[in-house]
Amino acid sequence: MDIVLITTIIASLFLVIGLAEPLAARLRLPYSVILAVLGMLIGGAAIFFLRTTLTDALNPVAEAILGLPIRSNVFLYVFLPTLLFQATLGMEIRRMLDDWVPILVLAVVAVVVATLSVGFALSWTSSLPLVACLLVGAIVSTTDPSAVISIFRSLSAPRRLARIIEGESLLNDAAAIALFGFFMGFVMLGLPDPTLQDALTRFPLLILGGALTGWLIARAAIRVMGLIPRYELAQHSISVALPYLAYIVAEQSVGASGVIAVVAAGLTLNLVGPGRLPPQAWTNLREIWDLLAHWAGALIFILAALLIPRLLEEFRLSDAVLIGVVVLAAIVARAAILFGVLPLLTALRLSPTVERPYRAAILWGGLRGAVTLALALAVTESFRVPLEVKRLVGILATGFTLFTLIVQGTTLRWVIRKLGLDQLSPIDQALSRQVVAVALQTVREDVARTTANYELNRDIVRGEAKRFGDRLNLAVQEAEETTEILERDRITLGLIALAGAERDTIIARVRDHSVSSRLAEQLLSDADRLIEATHSSGRTGYRRAARRTVAYGRGFRLAAGLHNRFGLSGPLTRLTADRFEQLLSQRLILRDLDGFIHGRIRRIHGRRVSELLTELLTQRMKALSRALDGLRLQYPGYAEELERRFIRRTALRLEEREYASMREDGLIGDELHTALVQDIAARRAAAEERPKLDLALQRAELVRQFPLFAGLDEAAIRRLARSLSTRYANAGEVVMAKDSPPRSVCFIATGAVELENAGQVWRLGRGEMFGQMAILTRKPRRVEARAMAPSTLLILDETRFRRLLKRSNRLRAAVRASAEKRGIDPDTILPA
């Protein structure tokens, strides 16, 4: 085939892709629907011109279009990894974790249910074998999010709804393609219908093998990218190779799911990449992948649509009935999950509530797309599949895809409007008025400065100022005198604005390198959670979300458990260091918000609301200071190292700004400026290295601070530190059970512990010990010890405790005082 002609066709396809988006916007139709229609028109026109006797002039072009090497392996090995990888990079993973139950139910359970529903419905109404019917079910169970998300965004639909659909569409691709590969093997080999044992035998390898492969390859790629921080283009090139290597290694070498490998690799890079790559490099990488995915998504759709006329050439009238069966079975299965399973999980408190309008939008928004067509094409290409099976699979998958695009896609916007998901709530409407008022005040100040600088005609300035002032007064009046908004809603509006300012401040601090990019995603996720919690629950939601930002999460508790039980301190060390840096960054950001309250919010909402917001912000600062003080007590010196690192980063930022100012003033040339900036980049890379947190060294520091060990020399302190083990206890955790055998003594390094025995309660704090009386009396413990707050305990076994007791006079005095307090003669228990 002529290479010039192929190049011309590909360039023309890009031209079609470029014109399709504005055409879709003008026609108010989903972008993917327009691409599908254009692709079908091009493919149908090519077939028409080849078979018509009207003219032969266009035959070479038609032959070239129909002769394009459009094969299923092109979709699965070239385009699909790009789409999946970019989708994982763009996911707000930490926000999606809030809805992980409904996302997994829709992405996995719904796919399995749809596969079985469609499969059994077809087996009852057609002559296809059951395994071929299940294959059709797997093909049509994967959804395409691109059209739905674009419609939601154009209508300002809730962001949570878009996140749920995006997460479902990403993960159900993996589930559906894994099921497709499973059933395709049985169809090609002519094996009997698979059993549950077959599924349980093969699926773990597909899923777990793919996840492990993707994770290992991504970790290796990230490590290499971290070794070349100054070579941004090289990092981007490695990221482009990553999904393809993960897909090919998983499919060809491991025999696992390549789709799951790509998803695992993308999730790994999404979580780890921002902390390992420079902020600008990570931003540029995301932008490159956005462009690649846009091209890949459009090409896979339009190329797949070119095949639709060919796939439907052998369509029979009886096939329409089977397409109706597939449509009905798929919709019923999806509705059963949305309106049956999800409400049940919510009632059992296993899942957050997904509102009924959301579920209705998700039901009608289950559009199918290029992945469904690509999987159907893979069946029609296989010479091992019987001809009738190939014909029906191609027609049913294509017909169902056309139904979802043409019927559901074109009416989805109307459905969303009917459900009221495009309407702003009263509080959002009030927020919009507040935004307009604040913006106009800022614009007035900027316009006044501009007109003064340019010395414009005073009469014109006065006239325009009067018009603008009237508009500003009207906007402020509407914001202040909205009768339907209660005072509590005004407070909510102020808190939403405050949380939005917090998010903007985070972005600004990341850009100027004051806040590390390592934790930028976590901080932004916390800010988004503040906004949404305030939207839904007002002041209570804001407080609850704010407490969550300083609380110890499940990951920290798991890491503490690994350290306490198995001595694995790596995860705990990383999470503790992250917590240190997160709290320090939050403190920096919150201190910038006080000016926003007095400068912006007070002008719109008045003094009372601004004072209340200041009080809430002060409470957050106090909680933040308490959390930081607790960490400083646990790890003396480490917080100071992080603060020194912050000062170094700030100094580099200011130095870089001075060089930029000198270049703009012509004091230095571009060559010198480039050299200076490169030197700053090298020093910044070194400053970004976070100091290591060594739990063993920190334990020695804690021992030195104990009054009980003040009489020990340095060598004895080091030996004691090696003998002590560290245990981390969360608030409410039982650290010593009643009637347990006495084997060790606990020293409270940080936190507080409550002891209870026979209704009597007493509390111990930092520097005190417990558990010693049971050891000395050689009796089972009579008290239960429970942590009152997150606490760090130093544990010393019985033998070493008795040895230390003989050497430390302070420790003997503490034991004597404790015994006398409990009415025990200390001379009967202390060694001579």
Automatic annotation (TrEMBL):
InterPro entries for the chain: Cation/H_exchanger_CPA1, Cation/H_exchanger_TM, cNMP-bd_dom, cNMP-bd_dom_sf, RmlC-like_jellyroll
SMART domains reported in the protein's UniProt record: cNMP
GO MF annotations, alphabetized: potassium:proton antiporter activity; sodium:proton antiporter activity
Top-level taxon of origin: Bacteria
Predominant cellular place of this UniProt entry's protein: membrane
Record's subcellular location: Cell membrane
Keywords noted in UniProt: Cell membrane, Ion transport, Membrane, Sodium, Sodium transport, Transmembrane, Transmembrane helix, Transport
Positions of transmembrane segments: 6-24, 31-50, 70-89, 101-122, 128-149, 170-191, 203-222, 242-268, 288-308, 320-341, 361-380, 392-416
Membrane topology (UniProt): Multi-pass membrane protein
GO cellular component terms given for this protein: plasma membrane
Record domain Cyclic nucleotide-binding: where: 708-822
GO biological process: regulation of intracellular pH; sodium ion import across plasma membrane
Descriptive protein name: Sodium/proton antiporter, CPA1 family
Native organism: Salipiger abyssi
Native organism taxonomy: Bacteria, Pseudomonadati, Pseudomonadota, Alphaproteobacteria, Rhodobacterales
